[in-house]
Amino acid sequence: MDSVISTFKEHIKQAAASKQTLRIQGGNTKHFYGEHNPSHVVLDTREHAGVVSYEPSELVVTVRAGTPLAQLEQLLETQGQCLAYEPPHFGASATVGGMVAAGLAGPSRANVGGVRDHVLGAKLINGLGEELTFGGQVMKNVAGYDVSRVLAGSMGTLGLITEVSLKVLPVAPAEATLVCKLFQHDALNQLHRWGAQALPLNASAWVHDSTAHPAQDLLFVRLRGAVAAVESACPRMIADVQALGGSASRMENAQAANDWQAGREQTLAFFHAPSPDVCLWRLSLPQTAPVLSLPYVTYIEWHGGLRWLWAPASAATQLRQAAHQAGGHATVFRRSQTGAADTQVFSEIPAVQQRIQRELQKQFDPYGVFNTGRLGI
What we know:
The protein is of the alpha+beta class. 28% of the residues lie in helices and 25% in strands.
């Protein structure tokens, strides 16, 4: 693989010398996310693939950036382990490097942490064509700035990730999913109460199911942990829902697993655009945020911390003000089918934060080789 790294370095040096901008790309399954400029030259990472080392007893795996994400998950499964944050693939060709660069996590994010919380170390080629190493392969190995975790969600704007070490976790011995009929207000309040208790709460999703007859407001709650903890929590939580005047039951694990997977990969009916002129908005809020007074159907994850909705680009001001007032921000996750550049993807960040971000990019990439504007800065 040294020859591949050498090729990457040379390509980046040439780009710096010719003032060319490179767009790092693996499986290209998350091409829709972030700001775009199609004029950039693609630097494909998929040739740099493979598992460098895996120590199941140490709960650490080190892989090259071009490694297919599905391949890594299959390897972990053979040892009864997993990426606990459930990163979405959005396509069969998703890579480990793309997973880290996008920084996206699935249903269990609120309880186990996100991608950055599981990155132990990384290797990176900067805008000068230099290979840098950050972090390592154990949790307590960082002196100074924890740069390896900064790479999570950097969208390829700091450099080319070539290798990453990740913390993995054992698959939980027991799992159960409850489906509860609760209005949004009651569902959020009950999630907050459960969150303050010693329960093996792992993931939640609330949705207004318009496909049912009649339509229903449903809260799905997933429990993971020791067998005794899961089995004792289920009847207790069902009783809590019944005390609110709602109803609750336990789902079959196979059906529940399919539903959670569909939520993670955004193949649920909710994620099908209701019309070609609307965008999929992602509102990141404190879990304690109340029901938002917005005229759009909402899908809620992370115990209230992540809210999805379909709305036109013209609703940007309304949505961003509502998110800001609740202590969060709103992002255009998927643009409409009719608008190539509906509105800016990310909410504007404060001037001080912008300056820090620009200075960070300048330190890694002084010639702007990776300055694709993907983060809107």
